């Protein structure tokens, strides 16, 4: 076994142009036993063992990494020496915002157009290399997802509905003429990436590990056509609250000239172009002191659609209304989960066209999304008129739904929905 002195010399390099694989088939090997992980299990456990060839390398925390010859894929997973007791990253957990902190590893796999993804692998986090004529750079052929991992009090880690993100990426890929990983490939890649970056998962109650899967047309193409090659990549970053207000009420302004999406377009899939379209209105709103922008439909200019990066809900009495998914609104996974939670709590939830005028006499308004989770709205300004909804924090309904959802995501209550996947 290598000495601590040797291991201490192996540090991550964040300034590489094209990161090298973090294991090598040419390295000397020794035999060891490691758990075999089964993708169909909700709990990521180790009921059986397989004799493996060991490639010993040091991670940024000074632990070991092993090459795994598994029946599912050729990939790297952390060994038992990367234990529950492994130290956390040395950062100020109490001061996390929603920004990128470089972590240790990312995951990458590729396939040709119409082909199947295979042989994904973990790599050191760092820059990637793309042909100037890559489809994603020239024609915007790219999708992304967002999900989170939470650390439980017992040290285990919970993922929240990762298969839903996999399905949404596959639906988006079909719309964008892209090859996509299978649901199993997506979920397994997420698991491996989170475990490889385990020391970056915040302590309980201090935040979460944000997971960003990307799918892009990496192959070179000059004429307008689907790219000949696709790259699937996952990186992660520890994060705190999305809005600078934290869980305090946010202030929105309704945009009635610029639009986020159009019927027949790509507003209903998580393509990269949808987000570039909101930057102008969002920047102008933030310059005026607003937190974000609420968009209306582009046809009638009177029905609510969504905020720049999250869905919206309007509360009146026991009825919670949210814009129906009709092709211009992203089908948020947190949105879907809040609807189910609200109905389980006895609320009537309506998915329908919601006129902007209903904001004028609503009891509460709140937003949902992976990044924001549930965010209360303190005011909405429409055509110069400001409508307030309270200044003391969550309204009663939003607080109730937020409490149930976050306690479930963090493993503080029983998961009767079967939504979480536990990693140990």
**Helical stretch count?**
8
- Beta-strand fraction estimate: 25-35%
Distance between the termini: 25 Å
Give the CATH H-level superfamily of the largest domain: D-amino Acid Aminotransferase, subunit A, domain 2
Q: Which structural class do the helices and strands define?
A: alpha+beta
Summed over residues and divided by their number, the pLDDT gives a mean of 83
- The domain count comes to 2
Largest sheet: 9 strands, mixed
Could you tell me the radius of gyration in angstroms? 22 Å
CATH domain class of the largest domain: Alpha Beta
Any idea of the CATH topology of the largest domain? D-amino Acid Aminotransferase, Chain A, domain 2
Lay out the secondary structure.
Layout lengths: L3 H5 L21 E6 L7 E2 L4 E6 L2 E2 L5 E6 L4 E5 L26 E8 L5 E7 L10 H5 L2 E3 L2 E5 L5 E4 L1 H14 L7 H14 L11 E10 L11 E11 L10 E6 L16 H5 L2 H9 L4 E5 L7 E4 L3 E6 L2 E5 L9 H12 L3 E5 L11 E6 L3 E10 L2 E4 L7 H14 L10 E4 L1
Parallel strand pairs: 2-23, 14-15, 14-21, 18-19
Antiparallel strand pairs: 1-3, 4-5, 5-6, 7-8, 7-13, 9-12, 10-11, 10-12, 11-23, 12-13, 15-16, 17-18, 17-20, 20-21, 21-22
List keywords for this structure.
424 residues, D-amino Acid Aminotransferase, Chain A, domain 2, nine-stranded mixed sheet, 23 strands, globular, disordered N terminus
Q: Could you describe the 3D structure shown?
A:
Helix content is 18%, strand content 31%. It is of the alpha+beta class and 424 residues long. Strands 2, 7, 8, 9, 10, 11, 12, 13 and 23 form a nine-stranded mixed β-sheet that branches. Strands 14, 15, 16, 17, 18, 19, 20, 21 and 22 form a nine-stranded mixed β-sheet that branches. Helix 3 packs across helix 4.
